[in-house]
Amino acid sequence: MRDEWGRRPEIIEGEYEVIEEWDAGGTYYRRKKRNFRLNPDMPYITYGILALNIGIWLIMSFVGTVFGLDLYYQLLYFGAKINHLIVRGEYWRLFTAMFLHIGITHLFFNSYALYIYGSVVEKLFGKIRFVLIYMIAGLMGSLLSYLFSPNPAAGASGAIFGLMGSLLYLLRRKGGLYKRIFGPGLYIVIGVNLLFGFIQPGIDNWGHIGGLIGGFLAANAVGLQDERRLTMRKAVTWLLVIACFAVGIWYGQRKYAPVMYIESSNYMLMEYRNGLQQ
User: Fold this and answer.
1) Which one has a higher pLDDT value, 115 or 178?
2) How many other β-carbons are positioned within 10 Å of the β-carbon of residue 123?
3) DSSP string, 153-201
4) Catalytic: 84?
5) pLDDT, tens digit, for every residue of 62-121?
6) Under 8 Å between Cβ of 255 and 147
């Protein structure tokens, strides 16, 4: 539709069309018509993951309160990374663990970091690439935690470190302005958090390291928005990512299979005494 001057209706913030018309009585008026096109610049995937994490934490806390479950059993039933269950075939825990959180403080800091870095990475890489980076990084973080940390673990921090890893890939590929904008601050955040993870007990630093590596590899595999073609570099990186998961699962079976004869309840109590990791 065009107005009397031949102009198309104006689009305001991607949400409304302002339409100027004359009604049957000759009266001029303006009305707004809802436009359901989403604004592509809004980080909807990031917001969705934030809502999912908060929703799962609320449900988990509610179930724990109603049924009198302590934190360990809440995490157990909702899918935390628990090594002796993963080696028995519950590999889905490598995925579900990245959506669970150990207390509201853990949830708050991870949510804040996800909002900051998720919004940036989603805009720079695009929504589909963002999902792939986030999921691969989270799985890689869970995998390294499974291989090298005996303690139960949960949290989105591995995937968030993966978002920082994807920004490292961006700096490597583009440099210039991006390096001046992100470089110093990004290096400091990564370094301080990794150092803090080694000093402070109860932090799953293997998950952070795995997520950082996974995010860098995933970004290399999917490429930036202007890197649409499947190149040899991308193909090799995809094969490397798949190989990492395959070798990790194989190594975990070899490492943990000898302790599978231990009674599950006793083993869980031992893990619980070792402490929960974030």
Assistant:
1) 115
2) 16
3) B--SHHHHHHHHHHHHHHHHHT-HHHHHHHHHHHHHHHHHHHHHHHHST
4) no
5) 999 999 999 999 999 999 999 999 999 999 999 999 999 999 999 999 999 999 999 999
6) yes
Q: What is the mean pLDDT of residues 214-220?
A: 98
Q: Are 220 and 240 in contact (CB under 8 A)?
A: no
Based on its alpha-carbon atoms, the radius of gyration of the chain, rounded to whole angstroms, reads 23
pLDDT of 66: 96
Lowest mean pLDDT among 9-23, 59-73, 105-119, 142-156: 9-23
For the chain, domains (ranges, CATH) are 1-37 (no CATH), 44-274 (1.20.1540.10)
Run of H or E residues at 233: helix 232-256
User: Averaged over 12-38, what is the pLDDT?
Assistant: 48
Which DSSP symbol is given to 224?
-
Task: Count CB atoms within 10 A of the CB of residue 215.
Answer: 31
Q: Which of 119, 142, 145, 157 is catalytic?
A: 157
Q: Give me the catalytic one of 84, 101, 106, 208.
A: 208
Residues sharing a CB contact under 8 Å with residue 28, sequence separation 6 or more, in sequence order: 20, 21, 22
Residue 13 has pLDDT above 50, yes or no: no
* 46: nearest Cα among 131, 108, 137, 109: 131
Q: Would you state the structure tokens that stand for residue 243, as one six-digit string? A: 């190989």
157 is catalytic: yes
